[in-house]
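To assess whether ligand presence alters the predicted conformation, the chain was also submitted together with thymidine-5'-diphosphate. Input:
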Amino acid sequence: MFITFEGMDGSGKTTQAKLTVQFLKSCGYDVLYTREPGGTTISDQIRAILLDNMENTHMHARTELLLFCASRAQLVAEVIIPHLEAGGVVVCDRYIDSTFAYQGYGHGLNLNALKSVVQFATGGLLPDVTIFLDIDPETALNRRAAGTLFGEAWNRLDDMAMEFHQRVYKGYRELLLASPARFQAVDANGTVEQVQKRIQALLAEWLEIPKGGAA
Ligand code: TYD
């Protein structure tokens, strides 16, 4: 079972992905948590190049795309596939849909070209379920800005204009419509607990979860 989390920066995606991992572990699953970009020694080095907002402000969108996909190729081969083949559950914080939303809809790169690169990098590995934490872009960005006051890193991609984030959000909505069986929207408004309950209810459609939640 391969579960991915998607959403705007500030949607609460990382918090919810980690809580979901705890929940599934408490249900008895062998769960591996990872995130993109990053997740292996090589991928973490690529992450540092991608998110550096001091040095790499002039990065071309195509360079950005290839670096995200290079990081992903290593993560899939080194971490995700071996865990899935061993019968475990993988929870990944961002995956291919981030590339379509940010580099495709956000930066306007050709979506068909992007599909080929993504397919090549992943060998065609698709998630079984993708949870989209749905929140409007302005609320997400405000949450993100508040988060940095408490020590969260502000990265190069956060510096992009509001119009960019609007395009990314619109992209996610189109991706949702294009893959309704895999892509599931969860309302990300409300408390952390409320959102987590919505995710757990949704996952019960895919995984065996004891009645009333974990033991
Ligand atoms: P990250 O620190 O993971 O942000 P967050 O935890 O808030 O999601 O930074 C990831 C950034 O990279 C985020 O702005 C989205 C972007 N991104 C892409 O543009 N394309 C991709 O393929 C991926 C995986 C991420």
